[in-house]
Amino acid sequence: MKAPAIIKTAADWALPYWTRGQAGRETxxxxxxxxxxxxLMAFTFKLLGSAWDVSWHFKWLRDDLAPPHLLNSAGTAxxxxxTVIHGYTGYGVDKAALRLIxxxxxxxxxxxxxxxxxxxxxxxxxxxxxxxxxMLYTGTxxxxxxxxxxxxxxxxxxxxxxxxxxxxxAFFLENVHFPEQHQEYGILSIGAWDNHAVYAEPILMRFAxxxxxxxxxxxxxxxxxxxxxxxxxxxxAVVVGVTVLVVARMMIGRxxxxxxxxxxYVGFRTLVWPLLTFTGFPPSAVPFFxxxxxxxxxLAFAVRLPSRGLAPVRAVLGAAVATxxxxxxxxxxxxxxxxxxxALKGQTGLLGAPPLVMSSAVWxxxxxxxxxxACEWFATRRQPIEARVIATATP
Length: 395
Hints:
Distance between the termini: 47 Å
Shape: globular
Mean pLDDT: 82
Number of domains: 2
Keywords: Membrane, Transmembrane, Transmembrane helix
Transmembrane segments: 34-58, 70-89, 96-114, 134-155, 231-248, 315-336, 356-379
Helix content: over 70%
Strand content: under 5%
Number of strands: 0
Oligomer: single chain
């Protein structure tokens, strides 16, 4: 079938649904699936763009129309179209899901011009932790949260519901972990510098050095590659990353859910790693420790407690075990990184990890425990979605 005929067929199918309605209206099953597979495609475009983006910025001087930005923009355009469809027709979402999607899309669209202005004013600003970049992650955070709620509330029980929910949580994990990639790329770039295998193009190095008022030396390279405190990486990974896995386990409601969500994200990063490095882009450390964190979450929920009143016990013990396991995995990855760089002169770093401040484990553990307790508390409230979470949370 030719393209015009396909477009006409799609339009004939879709136009009858283009009617004004309130969020929460009954949605035909085929339309519901089309909308959420559309979100799956939008997040895939954004994922591919973001996977390429940090590696690109560790090699080339920034460009507004760089290919990773264009890929991300394609996903954003599709997400905007879906947001408009949900908002106008009311199909596929309840009020809460719609508000999350609309606010998330709005914050993201506001953040885009602010980020462009920020780069015009402050120059390179490569750090993933800048305010304008954090706004982009925040917008995507609410956008995906709304999609997760909409699918969770409206999809019929079955394998498709479970798989799609896991996929959306994998996208969610990728979004919250994205700023951590700065340190994951940065630590390997420093190792490459030390072993005389620089990844960045000279124009990027010179621009960064001029912006810092320094020569192109190791101090400049360190400030360029690791611009945030060393304790931030592990604390953020434990508190934010593992909390996402806790919520995923609660909502999916099956043993192994947290592990599979983490493994999906880490597996994608592992597959992308050679595709980037074999085409001349810098490598990154891969957060394999997230899989261990997911396994700890699943094991915590597998412990059958006598009553739901003891859920705080699960939160405390689960947080303690997950924190210890993640920090242990980070230590192992850091050790392996040193051996790999020593043997291969910085050309390989698949098992690397950013610098680790072991004393930060205390704050990471406390933060994760507080977040896990909050999740357990929220899951017991009277609201409809939380009631369904309780119904599915028992393994």
